[in-house]
Amino acid sequence: MKSKSPKKKLARPKRILRLPDLDHAKVAVLNTLSSPDSQRSYRFAIDDFIAWYCSEPRLALNKTVVLRYKLQLETRHLASSAINLRLAAVRRLAYEAADTGLLSPELAAEIRRVKGAKKLGVRLGNWLSSGEAKRCWTPPTSKRFVASAAEASSRFASAVAFADRSWRISRSSTCKEEKITGPLST
Prior knowledge:
There is one protein chain. The protein has 8 helices and 3 strands; from the N terminus they run H-H-H-H-H-H-H-H-E-E-E. 49% of the residues lie in helices and 11% in strands. It has 2 domains: 19-112, Tyrosine recombinase, N-terminal domain (DNA polymerase, domain 1, Orthogonal Bundle); 130-183, no CATH class. By secondary structure, the protein is mainly α. Mean pLDDT is 75; it is low at 144-159 and 172-180. The chain has helices spanning 19-32, 36-55, 63-75, 80-99, 105-112, 130-137, 142-145, 149-152, and strands at 157-161, 166-173, 176-183. It is elongated. Helix 4 (80-99) runs antiparallel to helix 5 (105-112).
C-alpha cells in the first residue's frame, strides 16, 4: 500500500499588508538605492504612503488603493512632480513586496500601471528668444564695440571689451555670475 505524502500548503501572497510587511518592503527598496538623496526622498514618500495606508481600515493593496492615494495627494494640492515622485516610490514598494513574496506579481503589475499626475502649466521666468541668446553670446566685433555701454549691456548679459583686445560676457542669474573670456575678433 502506498503511503500518501503530506501535501505542502502553498504560501499565497497577502492582499492586506500589515506594518511589519510594509517596513520589510521599505527596507528592501531603500537598500537598492545608492544615492543618499534618493534614499531620503523615497523614505519620506514611503513613510507618507504607509501612514495613509495604515490609517484606512483593512485596505487590500491593489491598483484601486494606489489610485485613491493619488487622489488624496491631489486634494492636498501637491505639485505634479511631488505626486509622481511619491507614486514612483509606491510602485517600487509594490515591486519589492512582490519580489519578497508578500504581494502577488499580478497585483504589483497592476500597481505599476498606475499613471502619474499630468504636468500642467508653463515655465515661469524670463526666457531669451534664440535671437537674443545668439546676440548675447557672440563675441563683440570692433563695429559692435563702438556702441555705447548701455547698448552693449542688456538685462540678461553684458559684453565688455578691454584694452588688450579681450572680451568678457557676464551673465547674472540668481546671484551667480558666469564669465566667459576670449580674444576680441575683428
